[in-house]
Amino acid sequence: MFKLDEHPLVVQRAIIKVYGFVQGVGFRANAKRLALRLGLKGYAKNNDDCSVEIVVEGHEDKIKELIEFCKNGPKLAKVSKVDIKFEMAKNEFDGFGIRF
Q1: CA 91, CA 48: separation in Å to the nearest integer?
Q2: Of 58, 45, 47, 52, whose CA–CA distance to 90 is shortest?
Q3: What pLDDT, on a 0 to 100 scale, did the predictor assign at position 20?
Q4: Residues with Cβ < 8 Å from 11, sequence gap 6 or more?
Q5: Domains parsed from the chain with CATH numbers
Q6: Which residues are catalytic?
Q7: DSSP per residue, 42-57
């Protein structure tokens, strides 16, 4: 198991907010599929302001791959803006899920 204190600069946490036409187009499901493939942990959820929020922890290079996906999203999405905030990882997730 990866321990944060062994490689504190390798594992990060990102809070990604995606704006535009991003709900009802499979954004969360596609983000989950990619996150699992990349070995990331966290969740994706729809917000009341019609944005999608993704909180993710993992290796920086893998998080950047997920961020690249978020800039366009799935085929039917129309992304207008992506906000990203990086934090220290909290190591609180066992996998990647969709929250409601």
Answers
A1: 26
A2: 58
A3: 99
A4: 2, 4, 57, 58, 59, 60, 89, 91
A5: 18-88 (3.30.70.100)
A6: 28, 46
A7: EEEEE-TTS-EEEEEE
* Overall pTM surpassing 0.85 (yes/no): yes
User: Do 44 and 54 meet the contact criterion of CB atoms below 8 Å apart?
Assistant: yes
Closest C-alpha among 87, 94, 45, 37 to residue 66: 37
With left for phi above 0 and alpha for psi between -120 and 50, is residue 67 left, alpha or beta?
alpha
Render pLDDT for 28-66 as a digit per residue (tens, 0 to 9). Answer: 999 999 999 999 999 999 999 999 999 999 999 999 999
Burial of 11 (0-12, 13-18, 19+ CB in 10 A): buried
